Amino acid sequence: MPAQPKKRAVVENAGDNAIGPGLAAALANGEDVGPIVRHVFESGKPEVLLHHLRNIVKNKETEIEELCKLHYEEFILAVDELKGVLVDADHLKSQLVSENSKLEDANVGLLSRVEEMIELRAVNTNVAGAILALKVCVHVTSLCLSCNREISEGRFYPTLKTLELIEKDFLHSIPVKTLRRVISKQLPAIKLHIEKRVCEEFNDWLVHIRSTAREIGQLSIRQTATSRQRDEEMRALQREAEEQSRTGSTAFNEYVYSLDSTEQAEEDLVLEFNLTSVHRAYHIYSCLGIGEKFRDYYHKNRLMQLNLDLQVSTMQPFLESHQPFLAQIAGFFIVEDRVLRTAGGLLTEDQVESTWDTAIAKITAILEDQFTRLDTASHLLLIKDYVSLLGVTLKRYRYRVSPLMDILDKSRDKYHELLLTECRKQITDILTNDSYEQMVLKKEYEYNMNVVSFNLQDIDMIPDFPYVVPFSSSVPDVCRVVRSFIEDSVSYLSYGGGFIVNSYEVVKKYLDKLLIEVLNNSLLNIIHGGAFGVPQAMQIGSNISVFGRACDSFFLWQAGKLCGIPKRIVERPHSGLTAKAVLKASQNVAYNKLLYLVNDKLDSIMGQMSSINWTVEEEPEHANDYMNEVLVYLDSVVSTAQQILPLDALYKITIGALSHVSDSIMMAFLNDSLKRFNVNAVAGIDIDLKLLESFSEERYHSTGVSEIGKEATFMDCLVEVRQLVNLLLSNQPENFINPVIRVKNYGALDLKKVAIICDKYKDAPDRLFGSLSNRNTKQSARKKSMDVLKRRLKDMS
């Protein structure tokens, strides 16, 4: 092996003498002679190469001759044997030719029969092929006829299955090219025709479902309303059962049984609407391989319908169109929910949610705008109720309705402001048109309607008729307005996605607002601005007292009942209305107004004291005329107040009037127009005062005021004027200077007032030569004592 590269190197580097051996060695070894040939031609000596190749050929020929000479004998023997074989082969060939001639002569008839058989076999094969082709054509033709019949009958799914069978199993095997070409051309046309027919049916369904969506929504909302009413009745029965249980009613067990055994009398309405066209169209489109196209077509057209449904009619008020509008929306999404659940992927939850989000945003915007336009509470409540029914209805279908409930919560204050405005007008009209006279009830139904229904009765038993109640007609009328307000408020707060949390507290808040800002302010306006007399003022005070009692006995109880709050919770301490205290303050304002009117009347009567003869010569035997009128007036006032006012109010009015009379008498003595008076005039005042004291003592006990535990009695109002009269009639008025006696007998008198009055006191009548007239010793002593008192009072001042 190492010798080869050496030879190659010698060939590459040697001269012409080295080409021959290298070429011979390469040919002997079977190597590639390309490098040698390339080298020779590159060196420009191809003749040398040809010379050496001829030498190599000669050498090889010599070697062959030598080899042939060596094996000559064996070659001759082989040739002889081949010649013998050739002779045998010629003999065998002649025999075969002879035999073949004989066989051909013998089989001439058979060959003709074979040719006939071959022809018949070819004909048979052709006929069988024709029959098979005809069968295929007939079968395909029958399938085509079946397609036509099914299309005419509207049975598109079997048609598509038949077309699929033709296309997959027969189309490429139809032997008749013309038939195959015709069928291949008609298959897409038939599919397109089916698509158009199905689309037309679906379009008809779109028109139909939009026209029936409102009915679907109304039926579903009506079902929700029925269910709500049934729930309300059940809750009312349960509350009544709880109250009976708490009070230990004997009918409780029977009542519980009736609750347990009550069955639902009215079955829920079943919403039925036909989605066959949708299912069929989607299935056909899916079979055609264009299901996605139909999904887009369905979604696009339904969105267009929704946009049309969300347009508010401008031809009629929203109050009239809101129910059809909302029912249409409800029907639309009820249909969408049914399609989502039954159409097998035609809609996705994301698509439905996205559509609902778009709709709910538009609905809330419409409601916000319409709510701002409303100016009547009942209209807003009507729309709110239907919106809440819509929310509850669609919530059953798993739609997110919280934005609807938020809109209702936002409009709560607006609704109550409208409600307060309406109640303010009603209450103002009621109070303005009231005559403020006690109601006379002639029949039991009147009593039940005006007293019992508002829990205003003082006794549990039915009174005798005719019956005079301590309030005027405005009280039951206002109670009706308040009851209606509570019902409307509870109705608005109800079913905003369920009864709102702490609804009772919210109702209490608005109820307080009604009673304080509307009722109380209206009463104050009547009190301050009304031109009425003492009976009317007294009746107003009595009415306010009844309203104060009704805060707990009726208003709060009614709110708790409608909110489903147990009575025991409503009756808890510190759970009352703030309005009760406000009405109490207004009641005091009314009593002050009443007292002002009473005192004003008393002032007109007490003005008659100016006609009293303060220097009368003889001691009078009877009371002055003004006191008789005062007593008659006070008697009428106290008698009327005793019938309609509570004892506290009666006490306040009576003691205020008596105090005013006492002050008026004191002012008569202090009046600058009175220059002097004598003991006889004081004796007349003493008679007046005794009558007044007798009246005060008698009424203090007969009216029952003595039982309420007040510290001051009616007599205490007259203490100052009584002590003044006693001082002026005293035989020793100078004892007033003694602190012990003054505190004991004259503690209510003011020194300055006493000094002024005593300075006017003249014991003798003012007449000509009066100083020369006879006086008894007693009068002289009183005069001297009075003079001493005057001097001491001047010194003290």
Q: Which key terms come to mind for this protein?
A:
mainly alpha, rod-shaped, two-stranded antiparallel ribbon, 797 residues, disordered N terminus
What would you note in describing this structure?
With 797 residues, the chain is mainly α. The chain is 75% helix and 1% strand. It has helices at 3-13, 19-29, 34-43, 46-70, 72-106, 108-152, 156-170, 177-247, 252-261, 276-287, 291-309, 318-342, 349-373, 377-395, 402-410, 412-433, 444-450, 474-493, 503-529, 534-562, 567-570, 578-606, 625-644, 647-670, 679-702, 719-729, 739-745, 751-760, 777-796, and strands spanning 440-441, 467-468. A two-stranded antiparallel sheet has the order 1-2.
- What integer is the average pLDDT? 81
Give the low-confidence spans. Answer: 1-14, 249-269, 497-501, 765-775
Sheet with the most strands, sense and barrel status:
2 strands, antiparallel
**Quantity of strands, as a count:** 2
General shape: rod-shaped
Give the CA-CA distance, first to last residue: 167 Å
Radius of gyration, Cα only, in angstroms?
65 Å
Count of separate DSSP helical elements: 29
Keywords: Coiled coil, Cytoplasm, Exocytosis, Transport
InterPro entries: EXOC6/Sec15 (IPR007225), EXOC6/Sec15_C (IPR046361), EXOC6/Sec15_C_dom1 (IPR042045), EXOC6_Sec15_N (IPR048359), EXOC6PINT-1/Sec15/Tip20_C_dom2 (IPR042044)
Subcellular location: Cytoplasm, Cytosol
Family: Belongs to the SEC15 family.
